[in-house]
Design goal:
Elements: H1 2-22, E1 32-35, E2 38-52, E3 59-67, E4 70-75, E5 78-95, E6 104-107, E7 127-133, E8 142-156, E9 159-168, E10 173-180, E11 183-186
Parallel strand pairs: 2-11
Antiparallel strand pairs: 1-2, 1-10, 2-3, 3-5, 4-5, 5-7, 6-8, 7-8, 8-9, 9-10
Length: 189
Amino acid sequence: MKQTLIKFGVLVFALSFTLMSCKKDKVETKNSFKYNQKEAEIGTALGMKYGGTTTSGVYAINIIFFEKTISVHSLTNFPESASGIGDALFLTLLTNNETEVTPGEYTLMPSTGLPKAFVIDGKDDTGLLVNYNISRGGGGYAYLEISGGKVTVTKNGDTYEFTFNLNTTVNSTITGFYKGKVEIFSLKK
């Protein structure tokens, strides 16, 4: 009886050890974007509705991802100001919904008014401000213009998930991920 109990204990231990070693640890992706070997952790994401474009039924929404070192200050439920020094990624997305970003894949398209593109009627409002000092009106920052790539958007309830892989005009890439709520404001208060 004692040997049977010992064998059973060894079997249970071996089985549980095997199951634990097979279990994959879920890796949590953090909210950040990377470029030129720098990773900027995202602290705030918000959107601004530009309104309709020259194409009927197509609306522009600019999503801004602020590095954690930049604080956005809101008054009367509207982002009135910001402070700090850091990076900010601007993505202008064209969608067929004027109040939210429609889930899907957005690619840089040089045409005017196509949904799911991040160019507005030939003007590119998508780029990365690097080392932007808000208190000095920008002073000494660099601007990386986006030349291509894609942004994938999913939405579950009021939680967005953005995955981006972008190319810049200076032959670098910007990759990143954000999962969380994004308040989208109208430029008209």
